[in-house]
Every structure is written in structure tokens, then in C-alpha cells.
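Hi, here's the filled form for the chain we discussed.

Project: internal
Contact: R.S.
Residues: 394
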Amino acid sequence: MSELIRRQETDMKPMGRRSFLAAATALGIGAGVSSHAIASAVSDNEKTPDQAPDQTAEIYQRDRDLPFIGTEETFSTPALLKLNSINEDHIAFLEEIGLPDLGERRIGDMDAGGLDVQILSAHTPSVQNVPGQRGIDLAHDLNRQLVDGPIAAYPGRFKAFATLPLRSPEAAADELERAVRQDGFLGALTNGHIAGKYLDHPDFEPVLARAVALDVPIYLHPGYPADEVFRTYYSTTRPEYTKEFQDYIFSGSGYGWHQEVLTQCIRMITYGVFDRFPTLKIIIGHMGEGLPFYYERIVNDMGEPTANSLEKPFGQYFQDNFWVTTSAFPQTELLDLLLKHISVDRVMFATDYPFADIKAQTDWFRGVDLPREDKEKIAFRNAENLFRMKIPVR
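And the returned structure, exactly as it came back:
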């Protein structure tokens, strides 16, 4: 158990379930949902299409029939909730928003928002930091639960990213291959650092090599920081500020998660991962985890010191090896900025359900002023091409 979670258990004053839920909702506790996303989910649902921002009646009506594939859609199980949650109040919150529901409630929310397919991934940090045979068994069992459960029960509505026992890289590579070849998984999703190491570390080359051989992507989802990073960057010297999980949110969805993913991306480019694995496919969420804002600065400043060590210009790797999803960031100005730097062929729709409202985000995207062809690419065609799948016929 990380120091971050230990501190939450030992240093915080007890909170009632209602207080926890109120604090969690206000601060965006969960898997990547921002306070903006929560607010927009509430406000957008109260608006008609022609009243909502970026949703002119003409564009919205034109694109009401858009199919959608959600590429970052989260789930959990009772065992996973127990493994990764802070306390019983946290579990109650996650249950209340529907995180472990993989049945009628989830399908109902998908239908209400017009989301045709969810690509499921396990709640961060899943089981990737569990060492040894226990981690291997947990990952396999979690993957099989999806196959035997929602994927079988609702044909065509669910696909999945494999959970991998990354503390055992060779076994993780084998589980990735088994899940893809036997169970039809679309790739894998990771959650931040693995015992203080990122995917650029030589330990994980078996996993990257297997992903390349299988021609499947790896989705880099955020995870909580290593204990030393948490102590240096996010902990407070005033315990009274932990009572509403402020340091926890600060290090997670409130800020830290997004920097953590972008840092891992830059590490992977800088230290030659894509020169060793030129066809490796990486997905990042949350409208690029800050990449659109920092893109020119990163490319310009990192270009010179890497000119003699990388085989391509620094920015070319973002064009050749990365895909970006819109998860939990229904903001047109950010999408516009993203598309300034990343091809529309590399952007995919996602909602970050259940931490963000499906209908709020599909309604937002239906009203975005882009050519119909580009909107179809983002809504479902790019996912179909990347994952070699077809959206179900309605």
C-alpha cells in the first residue's frame, strides 16, 4: 500500500458517507474527471441543444445520428474496490456512481447518451503494482471476468483493454498475448508508474515488444505518484487541509495525473523507446493531458538536446506513435488546440464514464462545429481503424 493511501487512512479525520460523497464530487475524485467535467455534466443536461455552448441547432441536428465509441470507460469489481480504495466511504462513493456496474445501469446510460460501444478498462491503478504470482492471477481473473460477464451478456456493446501484471513483465507480455489472441482484447491500459518505473525502463521491453508484435496499442492512463514524489510535490504541512482529500486530489485528477502522463510520454520519446519500437502505438486521454498547451514548447526545447540521439525530430514521434482521446474534457477550445498540433486521424472520442456524464459529452460533440467527415473520424472511425473493429449496426 502506498504512503499516499496510508496517510489518507491514518491522518484524516473520519468522514461520514454523505460528507465523503459531497467532498469527492466537488473535488472530482475518481479516474480523471475534472471539476469542469462534473459542472458541465450537470449544466449541459439542463440545456436544450440550441442553448448549450457550441451546439447550434443546425449542427446539432445534422449530427444527431453520430455513432460513438467510448475509448476510456472505467469499471471495477468488489475485489478491485477493496484493493485500491482509500476507505469504506470511498468504496461507497464508487459504488454509488456505478463504477462496478457492468449491466443494466451502464447500458441504460450508454443508450441515453447514444454511446454505442464502451472500451472497458480497470480502475486505476488496477492490479499492476501487485507483485509475483498474486498479481499475475489477479490480472488474468480480472480480464476473464469481463469476457464471461458484460462482453458475453451484451454482444457488441463492450470491448476491453487488458489489465497486465506489470511487476512481472514477461508474464505481463504473455497475458497481453493471451487476452488479445484468445479473448479479443484490443490492447492494454497502464496506470502510471510501476513501482517507481515508467515504460521507458528496460524492464518493460518484453511488454512493448509483444504489443508491437500483436499490433495493439497501450493506453497510458494516469496513476498516483510514487511516495517520494507525493511527499515533495503534493503533501501539506498542515494536516487540517487533508480533511477533504485535498492532497489526494491535488496529486490526482486535480492536477498531478495529467502532468504524470505527459512526463511519461516525453520520457518515452527522449530515451528512445520509439526508435527501438518504431511501430509502437500509444494512446493518451483527457484531451492530451496538457500536451496541446505545451506542444510547441516541448517540441522546440527538447528538439535540440535530442537531435543527435533520436532518429527523428522530436515532434515527429507525437505524429507517428500517439493517439489522443477526449475523455472528460468536453471543451471545444481544447479540441481546437489539440487539432492544431495532432492530426484529426489520431483523435478519438471517450467519456471517462462513470466519472463523467455520457450524454453531456455526446451532446457536446454533436454540436461541435467541424466537418461531418472529421466528426465521424473522432466519434468512431478512428477507433474502428486503430482497433480493427466495427461499430454494431443500430
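Let me know if anything looks off before we file it.
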